[in-house]
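[step 3/7] fold_predict: job queued, chain A
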Amino acid sequence: MAMLGKRRPSRPASGHSGLVRKPSSKAEQKEGDSTTLVVERLAHDGRGVAHTTAGKTVFIDQALPGEHVDVAVHVTRKRYDEAHIKARFTTSEQRVEPPCVYFGYCGGCDLQHLNLAAQRQHKRDVVTELMARQGLTLGSIAALDGSSEHYRRRARLGVRVDGQGNVLLGFRAPNSHRLVDIEQCYVLVPALNELMLPLRQLLATLEAPRLVGHVELLATNEATVVLVRQLKAHDQDMARWQRFAEQQKISLGTWLGRETPVLHWNGARNNTGPALQDVLNLEELGIQRVKSLINDPPSSNDEASKQLTLRFFPGDFLQVNAEVNQKMVAQVLAWLKPAPGQQLVDLFAGVGNFSLPLAAAGAQVAAIEGNPAMVERITANADANQLEVHARQADLSDASTVQMLLSEHQHVDAIVLDPPRSGAEAVCQVIGRYNIPRVAYISCDPATLARDAAHLVHAGYRVKQVAVADMFLHTAHLETLMLFEYEG
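[step 4/7] structure written:
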């Protein structure tokens, strides 16, 4: 198997940090009199930004502000170039040694060369700048940071057979479909990282590894799960997978088929998989259960009274960083202060990440989701936690549908928005007509958040609180939370 048991090439002492791309002779042509540039700032995606003597913008991989670098251009465009470092003449004080040996080869975690404090400040700066483009000025920004660099509880690894017949397991290279073969992943939680080497060894023994599309790893408090994307059944290989699951004491599922794969839980009776649950600690959320659907709340000594369990299934959305997700939910609860008698609407509710804690605090919660399966999941989770949540399905990308929904809910005290990357523009375009006092918006894309925030401000809302959650350590991705209050 490629690179198994072999030493990886050593990282250059400076400059390249193991860059994947090699410039062609054409790309190495100097622009003007020199390719030496001074890095001015970071772009939103974490690349360094510089300008040539002719004024053309250059985006430079792994370059940091203040550094003097000699670069090679690997992509030339009309308005800007994309380049990587050939030599670095000065080094930023913010530069650190990347903790992962695959940095520069693997396309993930591309900010490892920047210290953690600077990473987090950069993310806050990105939010501030994007809001400023919409004419919005922000005050202080709270930081919701995790304590561990080994945070990722879910990951999808590609599987591919190269031209020499070696089976590769890993992630894609930067800006490429090429798979980078890895033996470990620095940001995975330990239970998943420990599976990497056994997985590689198993894949090398398969008779038909080309039938494996990818492998998904998932860790919860109750189970460690491996989900295999199997394009076509292969009895001998499936027996090998089953032995692997027994040896590693994990739950094994197989998505079988090409067009419409069906999930099979290997070795499970009635094809019933493990109870996959996310757990929210009520004490850490700063709330106590004050309402129960069926019975009175358990006593304070009962563990069931101290947590909420959210059941989910493979394919459902789950935040990859459990600790930071807990902090985000706590922040929203602190902003909204849910209490008995309040009426709250949770849009893009998922499996109930915000709906259930709001209901546990006593609020009357309506949870709206576009995916019918998620509506079923919210209802089941509310019942399992003895909470009352009214869940329904609706297309939240359609403004007329949103208008109809909001018209049905009178005297709403607050709305929670947790949309996908595309944002919640339809909601924000009509929400101002209903004078809803507060809106808590959770976004995984600051650009669409800035767009939607402008709609809310135009409708009479004001930004009252902002927090940036470092959900994806060592990457330029972030979660932003905003509290809006209606002022008319």
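[step 5/7] annotate
Residues 278 and 482 are 24 Å apart (CA to CA).
DSSP finds eleven helices and 23 strands in the chain.
exit 0
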